[in-house]
Design brief:
This protein is mainly alpha-helical. Helix content is 44%, strand content 3%. It has 18 helices and 4 strands. Strands 1-3 form a two-stranded antiparallel ribbon. A two-stranded antiparallel sheet has the order 2-4. The protein starts with a helix and ends in a 17-residue tail after the last helix.
Length: 509
């Protein structure tokens, strides 16, 4: 698709070699670009992934009903009145540029004696392609990432891509098992530091996400159950007890352009000055009302700061007293009456002044537990070792951990009789799983929350105040105008796209 990333990296490699004597060899052809090391490309690709995911996760956080916009800005009709076109939400180009980098690693790892990078690169490729499908439906896959060989790649059927991603992740696990990381290159992996077992667990966790996303599609039960049992037999397991985080203390720096991208966007700059956009996202009234009604105040106080935001002199602590009454959500799409001083901003689970080097979370352990819970509840005869109840309760516990709340608080809901918190008291187990997953994804995985909202229709979030007398909700994005301009015939072959009625294959109701 795009080759820009390769040339940028090649240029970086050229500049980086300037201090070496061999650079000045008169026999070197200055018109020949050097070959970039897959390890350098891989590290840069991971960093780019975190930056690229900011936009889709922000939009998903709004459209899943977790976040809305503060009233210190002119309300965005693009986001909250759904007035968008193919000129909006172009996450496509950045994703394909990033995928080209991962494909470069896959294609060149063997020749550069860096085979241990193939498995991780395939895992990341699978993750990004699933996200593209979840945003756009049919996308180029088999013809994609071939550079100038295919300038107008055909689009593949989204269901077929999903199946191909399961195969790709199987290949990734085989590569990971066969090629342990060379210790000298472990630092090129800013996710797991060369731990191939954890990469394999991440691969299985993504496979479970892909499979469960299809759980309401007719005729898929046998396929899903077979693939789940294959994962159990394979034996690597799933991410548990920790989140999949990128970067972290040894990677992000207190330097402009090198901060954790979430901290940099909605938190503070490298000098500790608060970003103007700190006043932009607000947690929704719907979210707060439900957390308070359930007595879920420990997570509430980690998801958000109390009204007025963080106390700049006491990082991680709210300006106002941290009692439930001081946490006010904003109605979804409200355009006035909810200013920063009287509403709650993104909380210490996401932003604390001075903590610029937290990992950027790609997938939470809590999400994985809820995926396992749904798998066991829907398909009781699959060979997953624990009960749906055990996975569900562990999912809540892991949510507390990720948010930084006392995990003992999760235990108080057992036997509490609170609907959708206490497994035994919850009349609809699948609904309880979906709602708890929605809470757990808040602040961390907005795109995933929006995908799950479209799949499950849960929770029943209020319509935007900007939409009067209509029930329409966005179901997908338009194909971007950049792709229409460069690959128009294949875009047009997808038919007329109505973002309010053209459902993705897994969005059956």
């Amino acid at each position: 698709m795009k080759v820009k990333s390769f040339f940028i990296l090649a240029f970086v490699a050229l500049v980086g070699s300037a201090c070496q004597e061999s650079f000045f060899d008169i026999n070197t052809n200055p018109n020949t670009l050097p070959t970039a090391s897959p390890s350098f490309v891989f590290t840069n690709a991971l960093n780019t992934t975190s930056t690229n995911m900011i936009g889709p996760n922000e939009t998903g956080s709004y459209w899943s009903g977790q976040w809305t916009q503060g009233n210190g800005y002119i309300i965005s009709t693009t986001l909250f009145a759904y007035n968008f076109t193919n000129g909006d939400f172009n996450y496509w180009d950045g994703y394909y540029d990033n995928l080209q980098d991962y494909q470069f690693v896959i294609n060149n790892a063997d020749a550069q004696n860096q085979k241990y990078l193939k498995g991780p690169a395939k895992v990341m490729k699978a993750m990004l392609f699933q996200q593209l499908v979840d945003m756009y439906g049919n996308v180029p896959y088999t013809d994609a990432l071939k550079g100038t060989e295919v300038l107008a790649p055909k689009f593949d059927d989204q269901k077929a891509i999903y199946e191909s991603l399961i195969t790709l992740l199987d290949e990734a696990i085989a590569d990971l098992k066969a090629n342990p990381f060379a210790s000298a290159f472990a630092n090129s992996d800013i996710v797991f530091k060369g731990n191939t077992t954890k990469w394999a667990q991440f691969a299985n966790s993504l496979k479970m996400r892909i499979l469960i996303r299809q759980s309401k599609v007719a005729g898929r039960e046998a396929y899903i159950k077979t693939e789940i049992n294959k994962m159990v037999t394979e034996g690597s397991g799933f991410i548990t007890g920790e989140d999949v985080g990128l970067g972290g203390p040894t990677f992000y720096l207190a330097t402009a352009g090198k901060l954790n991208p979430i901290y940099d966007r909605w938190g503070y700059d490298a000098n500790g000055a608060k970003r103007a956009l700190n006043n932009y996202p607000r947690l929704t009234q719907f979210l707060f009302t439900n957390l308070k009604a359930a007595g879920d105040t420990l997570r509430l106080k980690r998801i958000a700061y109390a009204n007025g935001g963080e106390n700049g002199n006491t990082p991680g602590v709210s300006t106002q007293k941290e009692v439930a009454a001081n946490y006010n959500g904003t109605p979804f799409g409200a355009s006035s009456g909810y200013l920063p001083a009287n509403t709650s901003s993104l909380g210490p689970s996401l932003i604390v002044k001075g903590e610029y080097n937290r990992p950027y979370i790609l997938m939470t352990a809590s999400e994985v537990q809820f995926l396992l819970a749904e798998a066991k509840q829907r398909y009781s005869d699959v060979s997953l070792p624990n009960t749906a109840k055990a996975y569900f309760e562990e999912g809540i516990k892991q949510s507390f951990r990720t948010l930084g709340a006392n995990v003992a608080g999760a235990e108080t809901f057992k036997g509490s009789k609170v609907q959708n918190y206490d497994w035994e008291a919850s009349t609809d187990k699948l609904a309880a799983i979906a709602i708890q997953k929605w809470i757990a994804l808040t602040n961390f995985s907005g795109l995933e929350a929006w995908a799950e909202y479209r799949r499950t229709n849960l929770p029943a979030t209020p319509q935007s105040i900007q939409i009067v007398g209509e029930t329409k909700r966005p179901l997908r994005f338009f194909y971007p105008n950049t792709e229409l301009g460069s690959n128009g015939e294949n875009v047009k072959a997808q038919g007329t796209i109505d973002v309010f009625t053209t459902r993705l294959f897994w969005d059956v109701d």
